[in-house]
Structure formats: structure tokens, C-alpha cells
Write the C-alpha cells for this entry.
Amino acid sequence: MLSVGGFVLLGMLVVLSLYVIVIYNRFVSLKHDTAKAWANIDVLLKQRHDELPKLVETCKQYMKHERETLERVMQARAGVSAAREASNLPALGAAEGQLRRGLLQLFAVAEAYPDLKADTAFRNLEARITGLENAIADRREFYNDTVNNNNVRLEQFPDVIIARLFAFKPFQLLEFSDEEKQDVDLRALFS
């Protein structure tokens, strides 16, 4: 028969075990939330990746003298794809910046081609890609929030003990360079 001290000790072990289980499950949940958030970004990047060749082909029909702009967009597309497939977040951030600048320049140059701007396929692709860009930005914000929640929990006491015990690791934020965060010089795009 257990004494009062034995019951207290048993009760403390049960509470401690439940607490460890709760913290462990929270880390598992954060890990999977982060993976899901990245998967959502990945889907949108893939969709945009598939739409860009259609946009470039539509533009080629009208923009005979703008090969450099079109090639820049396709090179940036390849860079985003390679970084995405390698899950290289720093490279993805840099490639995203190049692609965003290329698309801005492409859309700015398209203004000089009224027939292109009037083309239904171009307008639909432009709207689709712009929508995907906005969705990627939203998902990137959600991903970074999830990563931040995970990384903060990894450093908080007593969670840090459980995290180290079960080898939970921090995730990397999806960040962009300072150059990519600056306002776009529209005059330079139109000159």
C-alpha cells in the first residue's frame, strides 16, 4: 500500500508526464504546420512557374524587340524553380526578387504595346500571375509566422528542455534582401 508521500510522488510524476506530452505534441504540431505552410507556398510557386512560359509566349508575338526582358523573366523563373526544388530559402528569396523585378519590367514594357495590352490571353495571364504573386506574399507571411512561433517555443523555458531532448530544430524564415524590399523606380522601368 502506498503512503501519502507515495501518492504525492505518483501524482507529480503523472502531472509531469502529461506536461511533457503536451509540450511534445505542440512541437509536433508546429513542425507540421510549418511544413504545411511551406507546401502551400510551393504549390503557388509551381502554379506561377507553369504560367510564366505562357505569358512570355504571348508577349513574344508582340514584343519582337524586347527579347532581353523576356529572357530575364525566364532565367529568373529557372532560378526560382531550382531554389524551390532544393528547398534553399536564401536562394529562393534572391531568385524571387529577380523574378519580381523581371515581371515588373515586363508589365511596364507591355504598356508600350497596345495590341498586347488588348490581347485577352495577356490580360488573363497578367491577372493570374498578379493574383499568384499576392497569394505567395500572403502565404509567405503565414509561413514566417509559423516558423517564428516554432522558433520562439524552442527557446522558451521549460519547452527548450523538451525540444532538446527530442531534437526539435528551428526552421529558417523566408526572407528577401534589402534591395528587394525597396520601392520600385517606375521611371527607370519606363525609360
Q: What stands out?
A: The chain has eight helices and no strands. Residues 71 and 186 are 20 Å apart (CA to CA).
